[in-house]
Amino acid sequence: MNRSRARMTMRTTAQIVREYRGPALFSFGFRPFFLLAGIFSALAVPLWITALVSGGTFAGTATRDWHVHEMLFGYAPAVAVGYLMIAGANWTGHYPVAGRPLMLLTGLWFAGRAAILVAGMDNLVAASLDAAFLPVFAGTLWREQIAARNGRNLVPCIVVTLLGAANLGFHLRGLHPVAGAASERAAIGAIMLLIAIMGGRLVPSFTRNWIAHHKGGSEPAPYDRLDAGAAILTALSLAAWLVLPTEPLTGVLLGLSGLGLLFRLCRWRGWAAWREPLVWVLHLGYLWLGCGLLLLGFAICAPQMIPFSSAIHALTSGAIGVMTLAMMTRTTLSHTGRPRRVGRATVSIYLLVNAAALLRVLAPMLGNAQFYILAVSAALWSGAFGLFVLVYGPMLAAHRAASVGRQGEAK
C-alpha cells in the first residue's frame, strides 16, 4: 500500500522537466550524453590512430585495449543511456531525467573516461569509477520497468546489464586471460542485439510515417513471423559467437542471421524515402548491421577471404557509428523543438561517417597502404562527430525552441 501511494505521488517526467530551472544542458538526459559522446568520439579515434602510428611514444595510455574499451564501454553506452532516458520516460511516465540525478550520472561517466585516460586501464581507482556507471544506470532502468510492470521493454534493461557485466570482465582480463576477448564479444553482441531489436521497431516505423505523409507508395511490411525469426536467429548466433567464437557452425549462424536482417531491411522499402536523409541513414545503419554479421560469418569460416578486423569494424564503425549518429541527430531535432528537417551539414555528417566506416573495413585488405587509409578513416570519423558537435551542440545546450511547449520534451 505504501509503495502504491509513493508511486501515485511521484512526479511524472513531464512535471520534472517542466519544473526544472537549471542549465538547459541538464534539462533532459539525452542532452549531456549526446554532446559528450560526440566530443569524445571526435577526439578518441584520432588519438588512438596517432598512438598507433607513433608506436606508443605519443599518448602512452591510448593503447589498443584503451581504444576498444572506450568505444564499446565509453562512447556507445553514453549514446544508449541518452536515448534510453527518453525511451524510459515514454515507457513509465515518471523517469528521473533532469537536474541533480542527471548531473551525477553524467559526472560518473566523465570521471571514468578521464581517470582511464590519465591513470591507465589497469589502475584500480580508474577501473572502479568506470565500472560503476553502467550498473548504476541499469539499476534505475530495472527499477522503473519493474515498478511500471512493463514487460514489453525488458530487452534494453537486459542489454545494459550485459554491457555492465562485460565491462567488469574487461577490467578483470589480467586475472583471466580469456576475459578480455570474451567481454569484447559480449559487448559487441549486446549492442548489435539492441540495434537489431530497437532498430527493427524504429526504422520501419519512421519509414512508414514518412511514406504515409508524403504518399510515397506501399508501406513497409508489417512485423510478422519472419521478423521474429530473424531477431531470434540473430540472438542465437551472437550467443554462439560469445561461447564458440571460432567454430564453423557459429560462422554459418552469423552469416544466416546477417542475411535474415538484410531481408528484413528490404521489406522496409527504404528506397521510397530516398529524399529524406533522416530516414535513409537509418536504413544504412541497419544495412551495416546485416553486412557486418555476414562478414563476421565469412571471417570465421573463410579467414583467408575476409580479415577478422574488417568484419568487426563493419559492426562497430559501421553499424554502431552510423546508427548512433542517425539517432542522435533525429532525437536532438525532435526533443529540442526543432522541425525534423536537415540541411547539407547533417547530410555531410552521414556521408562522412559512412565513408570512415567503409575505409576502416577496407584498410586491412590494402597491405602496406592500410596505415594511410586508417589515418584518412580517422580524419573522416573525427570530421563527422566534430560536425555533429558544431551543428547539434548548440541545440543540446540551449533551451527548447519557443515554437514547442516544454511538455513535449518527454514525448
Concise structural overview:
The chain has helices at residues 2-9, 13-19, 30-53, 64-92, 100-119, 124-148, 154-171, 177-214, 225-243, 248-267, 277-301, 308-335, 344-362, 370-397. It is an all-alpha fold and 411 residues long.
Structural description of this entry:
There is one protein chain. The protein is mostly helical and about 400 residues long. About 75% of the residues lie in helices and about 0% in strands. The chain has helices at about 1-10, 15-20, 30-55, 65-90, 100-120, 125-150, 155-170, 175-215, 225-245, 250-265, 275-300, 310-335, 345-360, 370-395. α10 (about 250-265) packs antiparallel against α11 (about 275-300).
| Rg result | 21 Å
Low-confidence stretches: 1-9, 403-411
How many strands? 0
Helix-strand pattern, N to C? HHHHHHHHHHHHHH
Strand content: under 5%
Major sheet summary line: none
Summarize model confidence as the mean pLDDT. 88
Helix fraction, binned, reads over 70%
Structural class: mainly alpha
